[in-house]
Amino acid sequence: MATESQTPELSYDKPLPPVLELTKPFWDGCREGVLQIQFCNICDLPWFPPAEACPRCLQDDWEWRPISGHGTVWSWIRMWQKYFPGWSPDEYPYTIALIKLEEGPYMYSTLVEIEDQ
To answer: Per the CB 3.0–4.6 Å rule, which of 42, 72, 75, 82 could disulfide with 98?
Structure first.
């Protein structure tokens, strides 16, 4: 997780999914440079994507907590074709990765500032 002095100035002009009441805290955190996911207050399970109840104990007693933002790339794919609006031709190809977060859940992300291989 970035500290205040490390928080990058982010500008994001790509399409995003609809912001629902359930997902609003996630997107609000992203706008502030804070990655956060849900944690169960009963069994302490972290999970992503957002859900109304804990996937382990099925309780609806949970909260959003900031996480480290660190993880391991489990898989990746290089996108060469335009599937979604919002990307200009000079932004292709781009890399999408499946990340296993240090806290346990998996999350997809675009990889940036990596060397072509």
So the answer is: 75
**Domain ranges across the chain:** 24-111
Distance in angstroms (rounded) separating the CA atoms of residues 30 and 35:
6
Rg of the Cα atoms in the chain: 16
pLDDT in tens, 23-79: 999 999 998 999 999 999 999 999 999 999 999 999 999 999 999 999 999 999 998
Amino acid at 3: T
DSSP E strand boundaries for 22-93:
36-40, 46-47, 62-66, 71-79
Q: What angle do CA 49, 23, 15 make, to 5 degrees?
A: 90
Q: 103: phi > 0 → left, psi -120 to 50 → alpha, else beta; which? A: alpha
CA 47, CA 41: separation in Å to the nearest integer?
Answer: 12
0.85 surpassed by pTM: no
User: Which tokens sit at 2?
Assistant: 């970035």
What's the rounded Cα separation, in Å, for the pair 68 and 91?
28
